[in-house]
Amino acid sequence: MTKIETFVKEQANKYGKSRKSLMPILQEIVQKERFLSEEAMIAVAKELDLSTAEVYGTASFYTFLDTVPKGENIIRVCKTIACHMKGKDEIIEAIENTLNIKLGETTSDKKFSLLQANCLGWCHKGPVMLINDKVYPEITASKAIEIVEEYSNKN
Ligand code: FES
């Protein structure tokens, strides 16, 4: 049994093997490994007796469950309507230019990945940016750059 298979088995013992254990188990894997590998998804499917398509479908529906390796800091800009109307495109463009990457990419030093997210529940204070699990409401392009620069000087 591989390391990931053992880990999945442990999680299935902890959460149970029913369909409703799928999300918590996937979240545990992302927390541990930082992303969901194909191997991990196959192991989950086997353990919960689901099809891999079902596991993959769930994982890719939730943008929080990354299916590709990501940078140390994950920047997510809300793309849903309220934030869109308040100028999320400008924010994304400013971050892209600062980090020299495009949406969906990771910087070559693996420090940052830039993604979009569905509504983060802060619509009244848009546009909203999330870095890892910290929410930055009412940001402007220049504020976003400032915050990202703070992170890049952190370690
Ligand atoms: S639309 Fe952006 S947080 Fe809800």
What keyword list fits this structure?
155 residues, alpha+beta, Arc Repressor Mutant, subunit A, Glutaredoxin, 4 strands, elongated
Describe the structure.
The longest helix is centred in the C-terminal third of the chain and has 14 residues, at 141-154. The chain has 155 residues and is α+β, with helices and mostly antiparallel strands. It has two domains: 3-61, Arc Repressor Mutant, subunit A (Orthogonal Bundle), CATH 1.10.10; 73-154, Glutaredoxin (3-Layer(aba) Sandwich). A hairpin with a 2-residue loop joins β3 and β4. A four-stranded mixed β-sheet has the order 2-1-3-4, with helices on one face. It has helices at residues 3-15, 22-33, 38-48, 52-61, 81-85, 88-99, 141-154; strands spanning 73-78, 112-117, 129-131, 134-136. It contains seven helices and four strands. Bound molecules: FE2/S2 (inorganic) cluster. The site of FE2/S2 (inorganic) cluster (FES) has 12 residues, from α5.
